[in-house]
Amino acid sequence: MNDMTRSHGGTLLDPAPGRTGKTTTSNRLAPGKLPRGLQLAGPVLLVVLWEAAARLGYLSPHTLAAPSTAIATGFEMFADGTLLPHLAASAGRAYAGLFLGVLAGVVLALASGLTMTGEALIDGLVQIKRAIPTLALIPLVILWLGIGEAMKIFIIFTAVLVPVYVNTHAALRGIDIGHVELARTLGLTRSEFIRNVALPGALPGFFVSLRLAVTLCWTSLVVLELINTQTGIGYLMNRARDWGQTDIIVVGILIYAVLGLLSDAAVRMVEARALSYRRSIGS
């Protein structure tokens, strides 16, 4: 066995003969990190092919407008003041539901993750909600709250709450028992334990959930704004569908995509700052 697992005085994972040894095992077993900007290669290629198909006549403008046409339409709508009020209405709904959902999810996760009573009363209810598609609640919520803004914000709130709760709760339950024992040895009070041990330990899970939440708030809004609205990006898309204006529909899709990506990038930036200690420890 030793002869089979060793070669030239080292293991099979050692650098091959003639190499400098700078290539580590992890570099050879796992893919490297892409250079900055190459992550966009796929989307850029898709847009180029889409534009080419439209210009060569393979894609009818009645089926799908070319990217250049949609971008020009978007600038026109921005310049004549059509776009901004609808964009503000959509952002207000999305971020109001996001804020309420994140706040409620964190509070419920803390109550459930740090107390046995909370675990008994809260966790089962959230798991039941997790099994129910959020959009399936729309007919019932319309009966409760009507078809106005409250209904839309409430649906986004329920969509956001579940991932925030689940990931934050899991992070709290996964805190190293050694940290808990150390807190007991030091005689920390419960509030000190929560502030100095529980909350910092739950941050990685919370940021994972927050990234999911900022995506969910926009994907939920897409459907909600097709339900009897007079403002919002979804309203513009719904009206454009009636008139066959695929360029405006593409503008709406692009706006949803850009806002979702920008929201995710903002969360990742905050996460990098808040969890910078992990990078310094690992370096």
From TrEMBL:
Could you tell me which residue ranges the ABC transmembrane type-1 domain spans? 87-267
Q: Which family does the record claim for this protein?
A: Belongs to the binding-protein-dependent transport system permease family.
Sorted keywords for this record are:
Cell membrane, Membrane, Transmembrane, Transmembrane helix, Transport
Which PANTHER family does this one have? ALIPHATIC SULFONATES TRANSPORT PERMEASE PROTEIN SSUC-RELATED, ALKANE SULFONATE ABC TRANSPORTER-RELATED, MEMBRANE SUBUNIT
Q: Outline what the protein does.
A: Probably part of an ABC transporter complex. Probably responsible for the translocation of the substrate across the membrane.
**Cellular component terms (Gene Ontology):** plasma membrane
Quick one: where's region Disordered? 1-30
Species: Paracoccus denitrificans (strain Pd 1222)
Q: Name one Pfam family in it.
A: BPD_transp_1
Residues passing through the membrane, by range: 94-116, 128-147, 153-172, 248-270
Q: What are the GO BP annotations of this UniProt entry?
A: alkanesulfonate transmembrane transport
Kindly report the protein's main subcellular placement as a broad class: membrane
User: Can you tell which superkingdom this protein's organism belongs to?
Assistant: Bacteria
Subcellular location, record wording:
Cell membrane
Concerning InterPro entries, the annotation shows: MetI-like, MetI-like_sf
The membrane-topology field of this record reads: Multi-pass membrane protein
Name used for this protein in its record:
Binding-protein-dependent transport systems inner membrane component
Q: Which Gene3D superfamilies match?
A: MetI-like
